Amino acid sequence: MSDGPKIEFLDTTWRAPAGGKTTGSKGRLNIPAGKSSRGGGGGSVAATKAKLQRITNRVPEVMVKVSGRQRGGGHTAAHLEYIGRHGKLEVETSDGEKLESVKDLRELAQDWAEDEAATTKRREPLTSISMVLSMPPGTDPDTVYQAARAFARTELERFPYAMALHTDADHPHVHLTVAARGEGGERFNPRKDDLAGWRESFARELRARGIEAEATPRRARGVIQKMERTPIRKIRDRAEAGTAELPRVLQSSRAEAAAMAQEKPAKARPWEVSAIVRQSEVRASYEKAASELDASADPADRKLAEQTRAFVASMPDPMTRDRDQARQMAEATRNVRDSERDREGKPVTRAEPVPPTRSERQRPTQQPQPERTPDKQREIPKTPTRPDRTR
Known about the structure:
Blueprint: H1 10-14, H2 45-56, E1 63-71, H3 72-83, E2 91-93, E3 98-99, H4 102-117, E4 126-134, H5 141-155, E5 161-166, E6 173-179, H6 192-208, H7 230-240, H8 248-262, H9 270-294, H10 299-313, H11 321-343, H12 358-361
Antiparallel strand pairs: 1-4, 2-3, 2-5, 4-6, 5-6
């Protein structure tokens, strides 16, 4: 008789990728004993199944990010005034004090700046680091704030901080500003590993307060494309409106996409191959877990197996942003060319078919189509049927 599904190997799939230098003992997480700081289900089969249930149910993913760094008392004061909406919102400190006046916020910034100045000779040393903790629209703001407060008390207990809840955007979020210098002169220096652990911690605090939340790395959900960074998105919006120059990173990306669009046949870049291989490994891991769950005598396990397979089937194609943009460029060029030929009354050549998506390849095989003839021998009506645009 089976001892139950053995799916603890999923912890490896869910583990956030390591990156950057470690921070040693300074500025590290303060994770409670027995809780992982880098993802996973917590070690037990029950915890792993619970996490798999949340992931395949697509519960909201938390966001924890470093939003900026402030140098000097004036810069820090300006940021604290911003999160307090210049005295309109209450700002809570790590001591539990509630600050409402601009004067109090400036005094707090000056205290942090003096603490930093006492330990460094730099002209404008790093005084504070700002973070944002948020959840998707519809999440109860007060619960988000309570979870963020509990998170800060657990993870940042060695560092002074100030926090405020913002509800003026569609998603509730908490601005958390941390002094760069903590107890005993410890330096607050968050790295990629820390952020992964903080996401897990924030998600736990939300679940403890009745809000379903998860913190899985992008690749564990089969997602290839990174989210566009907020500063880049804002500059891009201004560039498209004609009020700013396109960022260099986007200029480079568009140039790469244009080169891809001209290639016949298309040549896969090394990072594209890596993305495909990585997603294949993630898919295989979930398929293996589904097989283990299928063999269980528990109907709930078998239902989770079915849900897991559906989750895998719904994963997006492993397409990078550059490749997606190249496909759009190529399609736009074909459409313009066909429109011009149509206006001139010339035969419109049929565009090369767009490669099918993974979900399309998984559909039942259709009846075989007639063998394709060369483009120069083929004519179609003046109003061409354009290929479906896939993403």
